[in-house]
Amino acid sequence: MLEINNLSSGYGDIQVLSSISLSIQQGEIISIVGANGAGKSTLVRTIMGTLPAREGHVWLNGQDITKLPTHQIAKLGIAQVMEGRRLFNHMTVEDNLLIGGDILCDKQRSSENLTWVYSLFPKLESRRKQLARSFSGGEQQMLAIGRALMTGPKLLLLDEPSIGLAPIMVETVFEKLPEINARGITIFLVEQDVHRSLSIASRAYVLEHGQIVMSGTGAELLKDDRLRKAYLGI
Ligand SMILES: Nc1ncnc2c1ncn2[C@@H]1O[C@H](COP(=O)(O)OP(=O)(O)O)[C@@H](O)[C@H]1O
Ligand SMILES: [Mg+2]
Q1: Domain ranges, residue 64
Q2: pLDDT (tens digit, 9 = 90+) per residue, 42-55?
């Protein structure tokens, strides 16, 4: 579904990503794990076209999307939940969701998606008329995921959904990912929480200093001595 080939990018004189290659099959939950500063968000930005690739290519279902603008990539079926969530704080929960659905230009589908998002996150429905800014961090993360799902994506890209959340909220957010995946949505999860994300990933890649240094199934990596020492302190 998504094929990344020799991708490099960076900021100004600094090269951050060096020759990243990876692939995602339809239906998988793929995780990228790595320490703070490894280049995870830079990878997300480069895939989404908000940061230009310096070398290499990104293919979505056989189409080269490397140089496409972000809104066009979104239209092709990739939705992202950015680090820091970026909600419209002065708008209600429901309006935040409906803005996500606008990209579809299809009222019927948008309304079906809204019903599904509300069944996935009942709290959003019970508080649909409240302003987004009145939400706690965890509730805002649910809203950000809900808004991304409203676009009817084939691939959902999540940049550190656990960051800054209370443990119980992290649990709630992670519990929903297999449910979203079961609906046919492929998931690309970028996380610092190595244990949790490897536990739900079908396959994972480890990113260090802008390079992929390990890959395997989530279960394989969880058993790997080097990974356990470096990331789990075991
Ligand atoms: N806007 C930016 N301008 C310059 N350097 C940046 C910018 N964003 C990130 N970096 C640098 O790129 C590297 C990777 O950052 P980032 O992709 O945010 O890592 P991660 O998401 O894995 O924590 C870091 O060294 C960081 O300082
Ligand atoms: Mg980041």
Answers
A1: 1-77+186-234
A2: 999 999 999 999 99
For residue range 141-194, list pLDDT tens digits in order: 999 999 999 999 999 999 999 888 888 888 888 999 999 999 999 999 999 889
Closest CA to 208 of 28, 35, 71, 62: 35
**Which residues, judged by CB distance below 6 Å to any ligand atom, belong to the binding site of ligand 1?**
11, 14, 16, 34, 36-42
- How many domains is the chain partitioned into structurally? 1
116 is a domain residue: no
CATH number at residue 215: 3.40.50.300
Decide if 97 is inside a domain.
no
DSSP string, 191-215: ES-HHHHHHH-SEEEEEETTEEEEE
In this structure, which residue's CA is closest to atom 25 in ligand 1?
Answer: 37
What spacing in Å lies between the alpha carbon of 39 and ligand 2's midpoint?
7
